[in-house]
Amino acid sequence: MPLPSHIAWLQNTGKVITTPEGRQIGVLEFKHLEEPAVLSAWAKHFREHYYLDTVLDEARDGTGLSRKDFLLQFAFPNKSTAPGPSVRAGDFAEILVADYFEYVLNWRVPRTRYRAKAVPDESVKGADFLAFAIDPTTNINAQQYSPNDTLMSVEVKAQFSGTSAKPRLQDAIDHSAKDHLRRAFTLNAMKQRLRLDQDLAGAALVRRFQSEVDHPFKSQYTAAAVYCESVYEEAGAANVSVANHPNHENLFLIVLKGDQMMTLVHHLFEVAANEA
């Protein structure tokens, strides 16, 4: 499967920030361009996090709404009424970091978190997303699992507006500290949605990680902050502590930044609705 075109805009700067505790933070940069074909393909990929195109007509049946209006009213967070814009930013940041894990780092990342949200302007409870790495000796179908299989829990926080940087990476670290407790709920919700999508292979992948006692695996965690360049401050990003994270020895830190991020977010949602 070829990489989505927008992944070429996501670049590793090679820069590493060191925290006062000696922890390293990788720095990524998103350099998006005015390329309509890339944006159109990305918008489809983005839209299908909320509703698969194949079920969109069935989903809107009875509403009297076009595909576009159904998505804007019942799927996508509101563009202007709070808390819609902040939810838009959060959804976008989580999906972009998930793309990085799947298409750059080669993790398996099922996309079910935003599927048929009951309330578009609310964030979904649970871990922001889970990623999976499967050891070559594991046979998912035969339920023969290696203890070297890995479950990655990822927390993502974003800031695309304001006059100064907020401690979004510290917020992600603090939220990540809760992931060991809530990932069971995230796994269950993910498996049920995959089954509804008839993605039985995806459901089997998730099932592998639902009983750590019976089928041990490795646990890792990532905290990520996504900033607009207009509010990004390297010193602020570096001033974080992982001391209170119960799994800090297996915690990775990432900062991602880009220009005009909120403008890009609104444009992506617009294209996703218009081209549905």
Main features:
six-stranded mixed beta sheet; 276 residues; 18% strand; 9 helices
How does this structure look, described?
- With 276 residues, this protein is an alpha/beta fold.
- The chain has one domain (5-274).
- It has helices at 36-47, 56-60, 67-75, 84-104, 168-176, 179-196, 200-207, 234-238, 261-274, and strands at residues 10-18, 24-30, 129-133, 150-159, 218-228, 251-258.
- α1 packs across α9 and α6 runs antiparallel to α7 (200-207).
- The protein is globular.
- The two termini are 22 Å apart.
Distance between the first and last residues' Cα: 22 Å
Instruction: Tell me the series of helices and strands, N- to C-terminal.
Output: EEHHHHEEHHHEHEH
The largest β sheet comes out as: 6 strands, mixed
Q: Average pLDDT value?
A: 96
Helix content: 25-40%
The coarse silhouette is globular
Gist of the model:
With 276 residues, this protein is of the alpha/beta class.
What is the strand and helix layout of this fold?
Layout: E1 10-18, E2 24-30, H1 36-47, H2 56-60, H3 67-75, H4 84-104, E3 129-133, E4 150-159, H5 168-176, H6 179-196, H7 200-207, E5 218-228, H8 234-238, E6 251-258, H9 261-274
Parallel strand pairs: 2-6, 4-5, 5-6
Antiparallel strand pairs: 1-2, 3-4
